[in-house]
Each structure stands twice: as structure tokens, then as C-alpha cells.
Fold this sequence. Notes:
This protein is an alpha/beta fold. The protein is built from eight helices and seven strands, in the order βαααβαβαβββααβα.
Amino acid sequence: MAKELNLVHIAAGDLFRQAIEQGAELGMQAKSYMEKGLLVPDEITIGMVLERVSAPDCESGVVLDGFPRNLKQAEALDKALGEQDKAIDKVIYIKVAEEELLKRLSGRWICRNCQAPYHITDNPPKVQGKCDRCGGELYQRPDDIPEAIKQRLQVYFTETAPLIDYYTREGKLAEVDGEGAVGNVSERLTTALRR
Ligand code: AMP
């Protein structure tokens, strides 16, 4: 989606996972929260994302993925963007039934190198255990186990879901049906963003 719209894709979870892979201090701070399915504290997360967003390659726009995840992060983002005369254009709320989410997360494998996601039955790689894009090794995220998934959903409902109202009030929310094939959902997303 970001590629099609010529924007930089920034996923907070990817930034954390890269930091863990590199053995960086940031990764060590985030790891235990991530494995339990909890949010990494705002003091760590907000600074990390805002720093990435203000890099020169983000000048003409970004797709933020997995950030903000609570009201404090949303307010910090609005404030930081406002100070640079920038603003969020659109927020996409991808709606998927809980049962389907469980199926997707528990069957997900991602590339250790480029973070590309696969699914054991719905989107398998051409060669088992290898990334189609870069040939990297595929692995199952430690937070894609049933216990952590349950915790993550709970965190979503208590901390992240209130952002639906927050961005509706700002007139920025677009709801997209996330059920169905990858290609169909991608098309719906791009249409919603272009609108
Ligand atoms: P994700 O890859 O988006 O599923 O994120 C994986 C994990 O990284 C989450 O369960 C959190 O532990 C952490 N994380 C990612 N984004 C955020 C965020 N915006 N705020 C706090 N923690 C986050």
C-alpha cells in the first residue's frame, strides 16, 4: 500500500523487532513487554516513532502501522506533527472478526530479514521457511502464541479501540472491511486512502 502511494511504511513493531535482532538497548527494553503481549511503555515508544518520522526520507509522507496505540500516543503525534505544520490525513480502521484474527495470528510467519508476513495456509511462501522477497529465514513471532494473542486483543480493546472515537471526532476515520483475500483487502485500503 505504501509502495503504491509512494510513501514510507513505518511499523512500530518492526522497529522494535529490528532493535531486538540487532541486540540494541531499545530492543532489550521492549522485548519483555512484547513477548507478554503488552504495550511497550509510551516513554520508549513515542520517542522512537517520532524520531523515525522526522527523518528526511519521510518528508513527503508516511503510512504509520501500529502507532498510535493509545490516546497518549495519539496526542503526542498530533502535537509533534502540528509543530512541523503537518497533520494526519486519514486513519484506517481495519475491521476483522476476532475468530479470524486468531486464525491469522496463530498461522503467521514473518521474515527475519525484511519482516514480510506469510500465513501457513492463506499466503504460504513459495519455498517453505524462506521469504519470497529476499530469501530470508521465516520465523513465528513469540507473541503469536495463544496466550500472548489473548493479551494483545485485550490490550487492543481497552487501550487502542478508544482511538476510533478520537479520530472519528477529528473527521479522519475510514472503516475498511478486512475480511477476505489479501488482494481484495489491499484494494479496499488503497481506495479508502485515495478518497
Ligand atoms: P505489532 O508488530 O504491531 O503487532 O507490534 C508487536 C508488539 O510491539 C506489540 O504487541 C507491542 O508490545 C509493541 N508495540 C508495537 N507498537 C506499539 C505501540 N504503538 N505502543 C506500544 N507498544 C507497541
